[in-house]
Amino acid sequence: EVHLVESGGGLVQPGGSLRLSCAASGYPQIMGWFRQAPGKEREGVASLDIIDGETKYVDSVKGRFTISKDNAKNTLYLEMNSLNPEDTASYYCAADLTYRYGGSLSSYHYDYWGQGTQVTVSS
Questions:
Q1: Angle 62-72-66 from CA coordinates, rounded to 5°
Q2: What gap in Å lies between CA 16 and CA 119, rounded to an integer?
Q3: Is residue 77 a contact partner of residue 93, using CB atoms and an 8 Å limit?
Q4: What are phi and psi of 96, to 5 degrees?
Q5: CA triplet 100, 113, 5: central angle to 5 degrees?
Q6: Rounded CA gap, 117 and 5, in Å?
């Protein structure tokens, strides 16, 4: 069983930065960040596997977002830079007990989800 609690969302101007956090209980093998904008499907943004530390990113955030995990705190982070209005969405942390190299950007591969945190990029 894994329990996830996100924090760190908010309102930011275009070009700004935010860091999302996801405090986890349990011992997931992979973790990821997803987002969902109104009227759109949920999209995998970044993922990480706990064993090798390998990561995956959707093309639209490569070079701008960084996923990382502090194992001592059992907390997942998403550092988001150069934000633009297209990044506006509810962001969700996800975790699963099945190992996959680099994690996964598919929501079907995750059994555990946080409650979500809103990120709004607007001037």
A1: 5
A2: 12
A3: no
A4: -150, 155
A5: 115
A6: 9
> What pLDDT band is residue 98 in, cutting at 50, 70 and 90?
very high
Sign of the CA dihedral running 80, 81, 84, 85: positive
Q: Look-up: residue for tokens 């990382």?
A: 68
Q: Can you read off the two tokens belonging to residue 116?
A: 């979500």
Q: What is the pLDDT of residues 39-76, one digit of tens each?
A: 999 999 999 999 999 999 999 999 999 999 999 999 99
Phi and psi (nearest 5°) for 108?
A: -70, -15
Q: Which residue's structure tokens are 């982070």? A: 77
Mean pLDDT value across the chain: 96
Counting Cβ atoms within 10 Å, is residue 16 exposed (0-12), middle (13-18) or buried (19+)? Answer: middle
What does the block give as tokens for 29? 């093998």
